[in-house]
Each structure stands twice: as C-alpha cells, then as structure tokens.
Design goal:
By secondary structure, this protein is of the alpha/beta class. The protein has three helices and seven strands; from the N terminus they run E-E-E-H-E-E-E-H-E-H. The chain has a single domain, classed as Nucleoside Triphosphate Pyrophosphohydrolase (Alpha-Beta Complex), CATH 3.90.79.10. The strands form two sheets. The chain has a five-stranded mixed sheet, covered by helices on one side. A hairpin with a 4-residue loop joins strand 4 and strand 5.
C-alpha cells in the first residue's frame, strides 16, 4: 500500500541574505529545517513546533514558497513538503539547544551552497528556489546513511 508523509520546511534568511540549513546527526548532507505534520496539526503550527524542538527558536510563518514532492520507490512513500518563508522572532542562538535530530545549523551564502551536499539539490538555486520540486529515489540517502552508520 502506498503511503503519504506530509512535511513542512522553513526558508529562513538572515540580514545578510544567507540561508539557514541544518544537518542531522550522522548525516553528510544539509537540508532546510522543518519536519513532519502530526494528525490534527496545521502546517504552520507543525513548522513552529519543529523549529522550537530542533533549534530552540520561534519563527513567524509567512507565505508558501515552494512544494517539494519526493517519491521513495522502495517503500512506496510519497513525501510532500510545503516550504514557507519564515522570519525568526529573535536572534539565532550562538549555540544550539540540545537536539535529538539536529547536529549543526548554519547560515550559508548562495556561493557557499554550491559546494555543499544538499537535499534536495534545488536548494543550491537559492534565492531563486523553484515553486515546485520533484525527485524520486529507490531508497532515500538518509535511510542508507542510518543503515550504514
């Protein structure tokens, strides 16, 4: 049976127009912060909760920026991620609060993005992120990394 996983992501820029990315424990790649939506939770509420849990920050959720649809063939799961433009309500902390998922968070210039391993790679087009992103994998890279490490 096919599955659908609804997710939400935050596009957060600082005053120097740098993009905030996060890297999970044990992962070699970076991604836009965010996570899953729980039953009965709105997309914006889920995003605020994820940012608080993972980074210890509060954010104002603004407009929808893009939708990322990703198919994992091996599990027959479609991941649908709605990305929002967001603004932090306070300065980004010098050090992150302890997080089970996030090992590192950092702002990057558009030039620095080019040299990173990012999921999805379309993030490297920042600030012109496409309005719709689609990709598919036999097995997602993060699933392979967890089974190896």
């Amino acid at each position: 049976m096919a599955k659908l996983s609804l997710r939400t992501r935050a596009i957060i820029k600082n005053g120097a127009n740098q993009l905030l990315l996060v890297r999970c424990h044990g992962a070699a790649w970076w991604h836009i912060p965010g996570g899953g939506v729980r039953a009965g939770e709105s997309l914006s509420d889920a995003l605020r909760r994820e940012l608080q849990e993972e980074l210890g920050v509060s954010a104002t959720v603004k407009d929808v920026r893009t939708v990322w649809e990703s198919l994992e063939k091996s599990t027959r799961t479609t991941y649908l991620s709605v990305w929002f433009d967001c603004a932090l309500q306070e300065d980004f902390p010098e050090t992150l609060a302890q997080s089970e998922e996030i090992a590192q968070a950092k702002f990057f210039t558009s030039e620095e993005l080019a040299g990173l391993t990012i999921n999805p790679p379309a993030v490297k087009q920042f600030p012109q992120i496409p309005s719709y992103i689609y990709d598919e994998h036999d097995v997602f890279p993060w699933r392979m990394e967890k089974s190896i490490g």
